[in-house]
Design goal:
This protein has about 200 residues and is mainly beta. The protein has one domain (about 5-195). About 10% of the residues lie in helices and about 30% in strands. The chain is built from three helices and eleven strands. The strands form two sheets. Strands 1-11-3-9-7-6 form a six-stranded antiparallel beta sheet. It is globular. Zinc ion (ZN) binds near residues 93, 94, 112 and 178.
Length: about 200
């Protein structure tokens, strides 16, 4: 094992991954959403893109064997294991402005965009340059009329997704600090981020 990182609830951590290695994202206590961004390590202008992934897959859901795409339409990860089967590829990362607008002027709340900016600052990625995330374990179903739900994550303790890196990458995971709506079951808890060689 090369890296076994506890992402504290409400915060983010970053890691380097080599092509061929596996990235495991694990729910520690369950019901916790993990926002996730990633970049081509050789050129940070190229990043994981939910928009391009949706376009290439032709659907709004992710399944094992799917390849996650960058904004240059290159595959950056393959989803090789998923014990939950419920994730979000539609929502922006929560942000300072979102808490202010949605929760009566709530200011200073921790947020995934700010979390990513904290851990990506050494790489020169600023607050507004953080790309859109894939939100692992987030339960935001799309109704027949197009309305987006906002429901408790079904992830249990120990549930995980495993990604195989298809290029050298810089990744960051945020244990989403959202405690003002049900997605994390009103309690923010840790995520485990593991980088390891494929066996
Ligand atoms: Zn968040």
């Amino acid at each position: 094992m090369l890296d076994d990182i506890t992402v504290p609830g409400g915060h983010a951590r970053a890691a380097r991954v080599e092509a061929g290695q596996l990235v495991e994202i694990i729910n520690v206590r369950g019901r916790q959403v993990c926002d996730f961004v990633a970049f081509n390590a050789e050129d940070l202008a190229e990043h994981l893109s939910p928009t391009h992934t949706r376009s290439m897959l032709g659907r709004l859901t992710l399944a094992v064997n799917d390849r996650l795409q960058t904004n240059a339409r290159n595959p950056i990860f393959e989803l090789v294991e998923d014990t939950v089967g419920r994730h979000d590829v539609l929502f922006a990362a929560c942000a300072h402005r979102r808490y202010e607008l949605d929760y009566d002027g709530l200011r200073g709340h921790r947020n995934c965009r700010g979390n990513f900016a904290e851990v990506l600052e050494p790489y020169g990625v600023g607050y507004l340059q953080v790309p859109d995330p894939i939100n692992w374990f987030q339960n935001t179903p799309v109704a027949a009329d197009g309305a987006l739900g906002m429901e408790v994550s079904p992830a249990e303790a120990g549930d995980r997704v495993v990604l195989r890196a298809l290029m050298d990458a810089l990744v960051a995971a945020s244990a989403c600090p959202q405690d003002q709506n049900p997605i994390n079951d009103w309690e923010v808890t840790d995520i485990r981020l593991v980088v390891k060689d494929a066996s």
